Amino acid sequence: MEKAKTINLGTLAKKYGTVAAFIVICIFFSLSTDVFLTRSNILTVLRQISMLAILGGGLTVVMITGRIDLSIGYGTSLLGIFCAALMVDFGISMPVAVLLTLLGGALIGLLNGTLIAYGGVPDFICTLGTGFLLSGINQAYTEGHPISGLPDSFDAFGNMSFLGIPTMIFILAFWLLIIAVVLSKTRFGRHTYAIGGNKEAALMSGVNVKSNSMWGFVFCGIGMAIAALVLTSRMGSAHVTAADSYQMQAIATVYLGATAFKEGEPNLAGTLLGALILGVLKNGMTLMNISYYYQDIAQGVVILLAVIITSLQRNRKK
Q: Which DSSP category does 89 fall into?
């Protein structure tokens, strides 16, 4: 009986240790500053992590299959410029521009997915090359200049509130809900987890590994488009490198989330938790007037620990 209890406690620690760490971090900051747990600051944190969590949600689908996408930051920046150019340079209405941007994100994902799943190109090299290609197209079209003069209705899209809650938080929740339903309630979702668990076994079971892997990248591309729309609207203009900095942060968020709920496996709830941890760290340290370089050190330590823990969990399973 004692052995069984030990095993159960160990399993709980592996699955929920990151959750416990998050709670400890929140308690620490709530004791260190009076404003941390206020409603306005909580909404600020959620608003700040929205971009990261939107990108991380789409990336989670890809990383469940054991692949990665290094083009998400560059793709999001390009899609922001694309949407702004459609409205400002070509006079296309906002609804059509939004739909075309979503389609553009899906096509970027389709390009990556086709080259990787059917062309046999390694995901690391393929998405890195695609990222440079997208960045080059972006720079060539804009010559480094932002696009401003967006319609007022589009600017309001990412800055409005409903019931006192910023709309971008609702957008994040809706996007994560869609992914959660797809992963848990559809055959595509079941096959995606099967591929991540054991690709050879999934193939022997009749799973179309190539098709499912490709569609995973399409989901990631749609996530880029949603993030681009939110970011461009919030900023009131499209900047050439607006989302480039989210590249590594989104990947780190998924890795950090892989330490929670499932041992060493990317999962949607974990990704959201990872984004919250990074967001709370940054927010709490800012409220405490801690210099930005110490914030980078803290986030770097957390990310390194997450990668180490995830690697150990995966190796233990083998």
A: T
Distance of CA 303 to the CA centre of its chain: 15
Chain Cα centroid distance, residue 9: 31
Alpha-carbon span 220 to 75, nearest angstrom: 10
Residue at token pair 């692949």: 67
Q: CA 311 to CA 295: how far, in whole Å? A: 24
Distance CA 154, CA 116 (A): 35
Exposure of 310 by Cβ count < 10 A (0-12 exposed, 13-18 middle, 19+ buried)? buried
**pLDDT value of position 156:** 78
Q: Which residue has the tokens 């991380």?
A: 56
pTM of the complete model beyond 0.85: yes
Candidates 165, 172, 169, 168; CA nearest to 40 is 165
DSSP characters over 112-177:
HHIIIIIT---HHHHHHHHHHHHHHHHHHHHTT--B----HHHHHHTT-EETTEEHHHHHHHHHHH
The b-or-e profile of 221-231 (16+ CB within 10 A means b, else e) is bbbbbbbbbbb
- Residues 52 and 272 sit within 8 Å (Cβ to Cβ): no
* Structure tokens given for 66: 């054991």
Structure tokens at 145: 């200049």
What are the pLDDT digits (tens) for 161-204?
888 888 999 999 999 999 999 999 999 999 999 998 888 888 88
